[in-house]
Write a structure and sequence with these properties.
The protein has 415 residues and is an alpha+beta fold. Helices cover 37% and strands 32% of the residues.
Length: 415
């Protein structure tokens, strides 16, 4: 190649390099302008104790509840019910059954009792009269016997015929006394039998009255504890048409009408994945959260864990363990059946630097965060100590550093 050709090639190469440098400078200038003009959301890195948690879902339940049973009375029908979910004090009336038929029967049984008592009183009075009469007759017979004995003793001073007559009269008097004694015994036995029979009739009538009074007393049910009522479904019209019991429903004696949970024994029944079962244990601290009360977080402890994994009724079906976290001081607004969750604290890292989980990104296979420095964002590699669903404990950045909550590089590429 000639000297002129080499010079031309040199100048073309130099011109290309200058153009490339100019483009790169323009790109850097444009990027700086973009970063200067765009503000990304940031959050400060916090220093403090980092709690490593396992988050589980579940629902509230009462470990103790009292069932309300229908009384053992014939054909019970609901006449009045306390409102479901309404606050109830211990001893308040919660259910009333129709007692009109029982009250009518009570009047009839009470009339029968009074009649039986009157008949018994009459029989007792008649027995007393009979006993007094028999006592008088027996005394007369004894007197006649003594008189006959006296006549026999005087036979020595009387004629033989009179003596024989006296002996005959003595024998007759003795027989009359025996007959009178037998009559007295018969009357006494008959009166005792009659009084015993009438007493049984009276006692049966009294038992019937007591039974009716007991039934009427059972027609009104008091609250065994403070809380609220959860009525059971009435399946008398079939499973598809089952609805909670209401006023006017006929119920079956001995059946469960409602349930009253003890609100002082509320606990969270949470489902624990099989992969997390080995990391939790009893007496571990938890934080209880309720979906309908997002501002409320309550401390608690795991009371017990199910020994076996249970199959859920969800689709697709899954197996999970159940962890029960007791709530020492439940809020007054809590009710069984509320959905929520627990954060089981399995470890604590003191003086850790924690950032929001969405502030951690992966660059070239390594975890990084984007530190905000004025209007610029610089990627910094960090080391992850522990992860939670909402935050991550890291090392490599100072406390108080502002980290971007979005991937700055991807946002820049879109720009």
């Amino acid at each position: 190649m000639s000297a002129r050709g080499r010079r031309v090639r040199f100048w073309f190469t130099l011109l290309g390099v200058l153009v490339a440098l100019g483009g790169a400078s323009a790109g850097v200038y444009r990027l700086s302008k973009v970063q200067a003009s765009v503000t990304f959301p940031v959050a400060p890195a916090r220093k403090g104790d980092f709690q490593v948690i396992i988050r589980c879902r579940g629902e509230l339940r009462a470990s103790r509840s009292v069932e309300i049973y229908v009384p053992m009375v014939p054909q019970p029908r609901i006449a009045w019910l306390a409102a479901a979910g309404e606050a109830i004090k211990a001893g308040d009336t919660i259910v009333k059954f129709d007692s009109s038929a029982s009250e009518q029967q009570l009047q009839q049984k009470d009339a029968a009792l009074q009649q039986a008592q009157a008949t018994l009183d009459q029989a007792v009075a008649q027995a007393r009269i009979t006993a007094e009469q028999d006592k008088s007759d027996l005394a007369d017979a004894q007197f006649a016997l003594e008189k006959a004995k006296l006549q026999v003793s005087l036979s020595e001073i009387k004629s033989r015929i009179e003596g024989e007559e006296a002996k005959v009269d003595l024998g007759i008097a003795e027989q009359k006394l025996k007959v009178e004694q037998a009559t007295v015994d018969l009357h006494a036995a008959s009166d005792r039998s009659k009084i015993a029979s009438l007493t049984r009739v009276r006692d049966q009538a009294q038992s019937d009255v007591n039974l009716m009074k007991s039934r009427i007393a059972q027609m009104e049910i008091k609250a065994p504890l403070a809380g609220f009522l959860i009525f059971e479904p009435n399946y008398s019209n079939g499973w598809m048409n089952a609805k909670p019991f209401k006023v006017g429903d006929n119920v079956w004696p001995g059946g469960v009408l409602a349930e009253m949970p003890d609100l002082h024994t509320l606990e969270m029944d949470a489902k624990v994945e099989e992969t997390d079962r080995g990391r939790i244990g009893t007496d571990q601290d938890v934080r209880v959260r309720i979906d309908s009360l997002p501002e409320l977080t309550m401390p608690g402890k795991i009371g017990h864990i199910s020994l076996l994994a249970e199959l859920s009724f969800e689709w697709p079906p899954t197996k999970s363990f159940h962890a029960y976290a007791a709530i020492p001081k439940p809020d007054a607004r809590l009710r069984p059946g509320m959905n929520g969750g627990i954060d089981i604290i399995i470890n604590r890292i003191p003086n850790a630097i924690s950032i929001p989980a969405k502030a951690l990104f992966t660059h070239a296979g390594k975890p990084v965060v984007y530190l905000a420095q004025g209007n610029r964002y610089r990627p910094v590699e960090v080391q992850v100590q522990a992860r939670n669903p909402d935050e991550v404990a890291v090392t490599g950045i100072p406390a108080g550093a502002l980290v971007a909550l979005v991937d700055v590089e991807k946002k820049d590429q879109k720009k």
